[in-house]
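Feature request disguised as a bug report, sorry. It would help if multi-protein outputs had a clear separator. Right now it looks like this:
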Amino acid sequence: MRSVCALAVLFALVAGLGPFLAPHDPVAINIPGRLAPPSGDHLLGTDAFGRDILSRLLHGARWSLGLAFVISVIGLCIGTLIGLIAALGGKVADWAVMRSTDTFLAFPELVAAIVIAGLMGAGTWSLIFALSVTGWMRYARVAWGIGLSLATRGYVVQARLAGLSPWAIARWHYLPSLLPSLTVVWTGMFARAILGISALGFLGFGVQPPAPEWGSMLLDARIHMRSTPLQMIWPGLAVVVCVLAINLAGDALRDALAEREKAL
């Protein structure tokens, strides 16, 4: 678990410090040096415009990981709120909210995000909106399920009889019980957000050039995939390793929480 968490922390540091670690300007064009292989000056080579791939990867981590963090946090807040409304609002609110959630879950998230981004137009804000709107349902179901299980607990019943409002009960009694499970869900959704950002970037709906983002780097490199495959391998490898590290960290966190519950 320590090695996995260390790898996840490493990616977070790269996202934060990447621009300071980059050896070159990620948007500086150098046509004479285009499609150069790895060398001492360009450790991972250059792309079709002569831009240093390593520098673009380091700068791109801020876009890919930073946007994924924002999107997953927005989904966490929206989904938790909706789940608590369903759990605390009575049978009518329960039925209406959860049937709406099931309807959203019936559509593939990435396909729905592509449709929304296509309707809104390419850009960072449409990317954030599309992935946020399609990424809250799992949080809602977890919050709803745990909320229903807590409704019959003695301390919740006593708080209700004491006259506390539903939102006060949610704040002081529901949220502390929800946070561990929601944190585990959040790690998985964080990884899914990275994949979604890369997919929309590859399709041209994400962060627009010349900003370096891993998905858009894959888009730029696809033309030269046969002649210089390393252009696609490096950003693709960054996405795979990052998503794998986050998922493994989430699994380790889930196992640790399960062991803690058994000990209690």
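(second protein starts here, but nothing in the output says so)
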Amino acid sequence: MQGMPPTSAITHRVAPPLVVVTDLDGTLLDHHHYHFRAALPALSRLAALAIPVILNTSKTQAEVAQLRRQLDNHCPYVVENGGALLWPEGNDVRIQRLGRPRQAILEILQRLHSPLGLSLQGFANWDVDQLCQHTGLTPQAAAQALDRHYSEPLLWPHDDATLARLRQLLAPHQLQALKGGRFLHIQGHHDKSDALAPLRQHYQRLWGCPPVIVALGDGGNDRRMLELADWAVVIRTPDRAPLHLSPRRGRTTLLPTGIGPEGWNQAIQRILNHYRSSDLGRSTWATFTKTG
């Protein structure tokens, strides 16, 4: 697969310029094995067109660093559900913090055990071996997942009423609980959508025209990101109904038939196939049937 060029070297070769912002687990990565093989054809086309692929995930900086190497991706990326937006700058990275420190979150969760009447089990309670058992991750990947700075994922086998009670207790502390593909994420009042505005501004400055944001995701923690995108791709999962998005004028919503990276590939291929350009300065977009 052709590597994604560094941000400073990107010169858009399509008009309007596209930016792809994607969730990872259950979306670009297979839910069970964390593979992205099914998405390789679309990833290769995006790289050939110099279209940035922004990874926007609940994963940590350490986890994403390894995946970026595998993808040969040099674009900005977002970690821990919008906890931070990271800007690669040569061999270094500039961190734009958007979330609250994890230690403050853990102290609040500890105080909520008694009023909630539950023992809240999450990453802070597990070592590498225990996290491997819960997720199927390798020991190296589990160690990277434990290196968190802006959020705390909890194992959540409880009902919706208990979740509502937890959210009520979190509210005075300016914390929220977001459902991801596998865990309940406790964090400040930020989410993946918070990175969209600075990303739009960055690429508008870089290219001299506003980018079109294509967002892909499958979980509740992707909802706001999808709702604010220009093109929202709702990825199917094997164990629950697809997300339903609130309607918004000007957004096209796609629901591919494939699950995980297979659906990711279908959606990106469909978008690129329906994009027609007679030259680099003139283009048209086909209108897709809206769903959701």
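Even a blank line would do. Unrelated, but nice: The domain at 7-98+192-285 is CATH 3.40.50.1000 (Rossmann fold).
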